[in-house]
Structure formats: C-alpha cells, structure tokens
Write a structure and sequence with these properties.
It is a single chain. This protein is mainly alpha-helical. It has a domain at 1-88. The protein contains seven helices and no strands. It has helices at residues 2-7, 15-29, 31-36, 41-56, 66-69, 83-100, 104-114. Helix 2 packs antiparallel against helix 4. It is elongated, with a radius of gyration of 18 Å. The two termini are 23 Å apart. This is Zf-RVT domain-containing protein. It comes from Cephalotus follicularis.
Amino acid sequence: ITARANSWVSKALSFVGRLQLVKATLASMQTFWCSTFLLPMTIVQECERILKRFLWGGNGRGKVKWAEVCKPLKEGGLGINDLKTWNKALLLKQVWDVLTGKSIWVKWCHAYLLHGSNFWTVAIRGLLSWS
C-alpha cells in the first residue's frame, strides 16, 4: 500500500482524484487480506495512516475525523470502508460460506479440516489458524 501511494504524486491531484484512488485502489488492495486473516490492530492503524496521509495530501492533520470519513455517502461521509469493520465482515462471510455454501473450497474444508464435526466446536489442530 505504501509503495502504491508513494508512486502517485498526491500534490498534483485534486481531493476528488485522491479520494477516487483511495476508494478504488488502496482500500481495495486490503480486501484479500481482510477476507483471509484477522488483521492485528497495529496493521489496521498503519493502513489507515497511509490512507489518511494520501487522502489529505501530506502529513498534516486531516480536516475531518476518520470515523466521519468512513461513513456512507448517505450519512455524510465519503464512503471509505472502515478497515476494522470491513475485516470482521469479510471474515464472517467466510464463516457463512462454510456453514451454507457448496463450493469446492467449502467441501474441502468439511472433508479435510472439519471431518464432519460441528464448525462451532471443532478443535484447532497443529499450526492451523482459526481463520
């Protein structure tokens, strides 16, 4: 994320241009990691710091609280996803898929990880993470 943000010249872009890049590229880069791992709070804070710095055009203070920026457009925000909430939502989607889905990945999880056990009570074995 840092490399991508640093490759663009934020001073030459308008605020709307920076907002579009944040929403379309920088925030979407986190989707894979958010849907796969429960990110540590330090990582979430660092990612948000990078997004804030790029959006506001430098290291200065933001003009609005980040919590307000992360609200939907209808509520007066800018529609940027709150990374902590987005991370939990995407992980819950994975749980929902395991409980209700019929994809190849879900079948593999049931065959090799759950072994017919209840999802909510299965013990974690070896070096597997809960996610």
